[in-house]
Amino acid sequence: MATGWMTAGLASRGRRLVSAAVAILIGVGFLTTSLVAVSTAQAGLEEAVAGGVRDADLVVTGEDGSWLDTDQVDRVAATPGVADVVASASVGVERGSGFVMGASVPSGGMTLLQGRLPAEAREVTVNRELAAELSVDDRLTVPTWTTTGTEGAPVDLTVVGVVDPGEMHALSYGEGFLATDATLRELDPLLSYESVQVAVAGGAAVGDVRADLQSALPGTVLRTGPEAAADRVAAMTGQTFVLGGVLLGFGAVALVTAAIVIANTFTITLAQRTGELALLRCVGATRSQVRRSVLVEAVALGAAASVAGVAGGIGVAQLLLTLAREVGIGIPLGTGLEVGWVSLVVPVLVGVLMTVLASFWPATRATRVSPLAALRPTAAPEGATRGTAVRLLLAVLLVAGGAGLMVLGAAQRQVLLGVGGGLVSFVGVLLAAVVLVPPLVRLLGVAARPAGVPGRLAVAGAVRNPGRAAATSAALLVGVTLITMTSVGAASGQRTATDEIDQALAIDLAAQTPSEQDGDLPVPTAVDDGVVDRLAAVDGVRAVEVVDTAYLEVGDTGTAPAAALSPATAERVLRSEDLVDALAPGTVGLGSYERARYGVSAGDTLTVSGPGGSEDLEVIELGLGGAGLALQPEDLASLSGGGTAQQPGAVLIRLEDSADVRATMSAVTDLTDEAGMSVQGAAAERAAITQVLDVMVLVATALLGVAVLIAVVGIANTLSLSVVERHREHALLRGLGLTRGQMRMMLLVESVLLALVSTGLGLVLGVVYAAFGIQTLLPEGTALTLAVPWGRVATIVGVALLAGALASVLPARRAARVSPAEGLAAA
Amino acid sequence: MTTTTPRQGTALAASALDLTKTYGRGEAAVTALDGVSVGIEAGRFTAIMGPSGSGKSTLMHLLAGLDTPTAGRAYLGEHELTSLSDAQLTRLRRQSVGFVFQAFNLLPTLTARQNIRLPLDLAGRSADAGWERTVVEALGLGERLGHRPGELSGGQQQRVALARALVTRPEVIFADEPTGALDSTTGAEVLALLRRSVDEWGQTVVMVTHDPKAAAVADRVLLLADGRIAGEILDPDADAVLAGIRDLGRVA
Ligand SMILES: Nc1ncnc2c1ncn2[C@@H]1O[C@H](COP(=O)(O)OP(=O)(O)OP(=O)(O)O)[C@@H](O)[C@H]1O
Ligand SMILES: [Mg+2]
What is the ipTM of this complex? Predict the structure, then answer.
């Protein structure tokens, strides 16, 4: 039984446990938000793909995903007992230079924005994209198809309304309209249908109608509405499943961090209560009673904080939902927040379980307090014990074993092996933190020397209790390691990808003039100087180089353009220095597309000939896209024979690293279109890869930020518990002349030191893990190129500094308030 | 600021003027000091005695600038303490006041030497090496400077605290029951050192004690009862002090 004295602790020590509660709250809140977000996305998706289907009595589809024709649909409608059919078809009709999509009116999921849905033939309700050009009562003239597939007479359609089709419909992207079945059939008599939803007449039995339909329509599949809905959802859930997996993975990281903070909090508060617990033992409490009192405290704390976490998590989810609707992220979120019992119960259970597990070890240690400890005034700080030695041995074994697994994983390209090794070794590092952190703090503490006595005291304070310092840093270590790993991994992945792009297409953009025919050989026209100047002036363009081009014969495959690329020019417009170095007379640069076309690879010989002669050139990997083969100016001149065959016919463009690629490219294209030039280049692809990886890193960092937040709470927690503990020391220091400012400085330095040490360790570990990870993921035979994004590393260190500083604010305020007289009076 | 006020027999190192300190409010209010006026002469050894709860520690804390009074004024040398800000008080403390407490005098993370130099380091002053050596040797701490408090005996810890108080050459050293936790031999040793610092180095010392034999070492004993000055014994011996305390009991 939990008697009064067992729970009394919670009430009186409530404030000391606040930070542990906050850690639980954040972790559980994150879990709840993830669960709610996933089930909301799932519900939205289900509603979008299956909402209309679910209410149908029967759904007819073709076998193996084939579509139904008009004849089959008519037979469905003619079957006795069928009251109504909703058949879904779509047709693409030409309009100007593009296509407009026409679709059947679905049974649900639409929002009518204006007017009404089509009821008569030749009435249409347009989507928002088309509504930008047409309004209600306007006419839309479109061509029709004939049964033979040729173009028939155009028809006039009348716009009767505007509709928002939702996110998962044929009209969700691009211009389109809804029309009755008759209209669609008029547009395309060969219309085919994805499915037909059947409403059974009042008197008829669904089973009978189903049998009748089955015999009337051989080769079709019949399902009830709910069955069809479930099938559609099953085909879609892969997406939410991945989303759920990712979010829950990050949730687990947050929870592990919270567990470290909780365990640390309990260890410290119990250490501070040693005297009290010993007194309990003196007056007759058994070991199991002491343990139970601690665990009761953990359950109560875990439950209270978890419930608060669930409430907070749902609040955040609601906020995110509102935000997502506002921004429009392309996931159907028509329904409200989906809060199932799973998202209510599971986080609370996880939170309580985690708190109890995290407090189990401290609780067990508390039972080892000897009754005699009550008689000793203060417990001496614990030194190295046999426990530490065992722990250290275990740590070494885990790190060594984990590293071995990672090496093996990298060698055999076994991702699971690598991940397992990473986890094992990380646990080892966390265990070893007890011996790693204090010396590192002392080392870094040298930098705190200028802070004078407060700096020196801060170093001493930080390493005073190695276990505590280690546990405090461990929480932050988790987050920093993962963030570093993601950043370095993404940067390296980006480099590998861009290396590949370089090999395919070395130039950001190449614009080329059209050719004129001069005898049997085409000749490039000269670039207009005005265009070159205007290209150079485009925002985001870094360098523009006009190069000579000529058309040459390549082997016996016909003519191809070739451009003169001197090393000096190349240096200004190419990104890769390696490529510039490879340029030499007697070489011909080909991109991967051209190499495949001519069936050659780097080092092979390619015969190139022109009006001036013929040469065997060595192939190097360097593509200029539309500008053609890359030759040295002297080679091009001798092959083309000089004269009019060689013209300044291409412009090579390099963009700024900071350029808005889309805007720059569109400005460049406008200019070249005007001048009749064509443009090609790697800029778009490069930008797309960079953007995808940037977004990925950003999202991962944001999600891992939750773990970092918990870790900061942990640092603040350890610090404020230490302030409680060192109350008298602080009073003594104040008495001896430590100013309030110096006191704050002392705690600031202590906090920042711990934060920086875990960040440093995290950076190193993150880079190492990233290296192993990339090596494991790379295809065999690819060289490992590790890219460390220094900007991001600097940001991480900066954030850690800031986090350390922030964590010290509240404890420092408390410590500065210690009155010198009060603290000493207690002596 | 001049810190080397001449230590003549009559100059006051510290004084209290109608000093009152009340803890708590309303019904729970406790008047720890009730209008105390007293002067502490420079270069002399003053002992404060009185029953438990009579306000001895409170008076000492107020005179040392460790706490602020509810009413009245406290002076340290020529500085009026109540008019100073916390930062000014702190600086004044590390410059002009030395402390020895009953227990918990030292920072456990610092060595004896670091503890001794702490007030100087905090003020950013460097130690007068000659003076420091004199103090350390006089207190017999030469061998122990590299040790941490946990590795020192109670008497050694009190001597380190005394060395810390002496090394800044403060205007006043305040000692609150410095021998309370020591056996009689070690206690006598510490008292002899305090006496010597007054006689040889002209130091001003104020000591709170419950031990009449300890008080007898002082030049003057102030008797406190119920937050008021209840008497004074000049050039005391143990018997006179005992008698004084017995009279106090009668008053209370
Ligand atoms: N921080 C405080 N809050 C409330 N009351 C206090 C506080 N400090 C002291 N007192 C009260 O003020 C009175 C004087 O206390 P003080 O510590 O000065 O006594 P003392 O003479 O030093 O006693 P002792 O010989 O036991 O050390 C006592 O009644 C005490 O209870
Ligand atoms: Mg006292």
Answer: 0.77
